[in-house]
């Protein structure tokens, strides 16, 4: 989780090698939202997702991964949470990234500009 912990919550299924996911992450950073990031390996990024998941500071590691920077303080840990993300994504037909899910379960696939995201997060249609 990252962002404003008291803001509206969105869940994002993402891949650290996805350019649209990187753009979405940058857009969400500029918004007053709480993001629950759920990495899935659509583009072969599981090794990178493991490193982010096991980092001491996941938020910092997440933004380093999107920026293509080397991750510092890499560690190992139980990454079964990432397995759960991938099983959930497959069982719900999420084959691409990013997928943005609002707290009420409404979902949009693909990147959207800031204004469209703000409207969607506020409860509007995609």
Report on the architecture of this protein:
The structure is a single chain. This protein is an alpha+beta fold and 126 residues long. Helix 2 packs antiparallel against helix 3 (58-67). 40% of the residues lie in helices and 18% in strands. The chain has a 5-stranded mixed β-sheet. The mean pLDDT is 93. The protein has helices at 19-29, 46-54, 58-67, 80-91, 114-121; strands at residues 2-3, 8-14, 33-39, 99-102, 107-109.
What is the fold's blueprint, element by element?
Blueprint: E1 2-3, E2 8-14, H1 19-29, E3 33-39, H2 46-54, H3 58-67, H4 80-91, E4 99-102, E5 107-109, H5 114-121
Parallel strand pairs: 2-3
Antiparallel strand pairs: 1-3, 2-4, 4-5
Helix pairs in contact: 2-3
The largest beta-sheet arranges its strands as 1-3-2-4-5
H/E series: EEHEHHHEEH
Ranges with pLDDT <50 over ≥5 residues?
A: none
Structural class: alpha+beta
The number of distinct helices, counting runs of at least 4 residues, comes to: 5
Largest sheet: 5 strands, mixed
Mean pLDDT: 93
Rg computed from alpha carbons, rounded to a whole number of angstroms: 14 Å
* CA-based shape: globular
Question: Percent range for helical residues?
Answer: 25-40%
DSSP strand count = 5
Ends: how far apart? 23 Å
Strand content: 15-25%
Task: Give a quick precis of the structure.
Helix content is 40%, strand content 18%. It has 126 residues and is α+β, with helices and mostly antiparallel strands. The longest helix has 12 residues, at 80-91.
């Amino acid at each position: 989780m990252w962002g404003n912990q008291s803001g509206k919550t969105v869940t994002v299924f993402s891949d650290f090698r996805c350019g649209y996911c990187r753009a979405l992450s940058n857009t969400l950073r500029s918004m007053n939202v709480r993001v629950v990031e759920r990495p899935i390996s659509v583009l072969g990024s599981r090794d990178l997702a493991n490193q982010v998941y096991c980092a001491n500071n996941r938020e910092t590691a997440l933004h380093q991964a999107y920026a293509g920077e080397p991750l510092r303080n890499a560690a190992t840990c139980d990454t079964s949470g990432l397995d759960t993300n991938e099983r959930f994504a497959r069982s719900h037909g999420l084959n691409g990234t990013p997928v943005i899910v609002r707290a009420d379960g409404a979902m949009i696939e693909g990147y959207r500009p800031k204004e469209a995201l703000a409207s969607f997060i506020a409860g509007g249609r995609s």
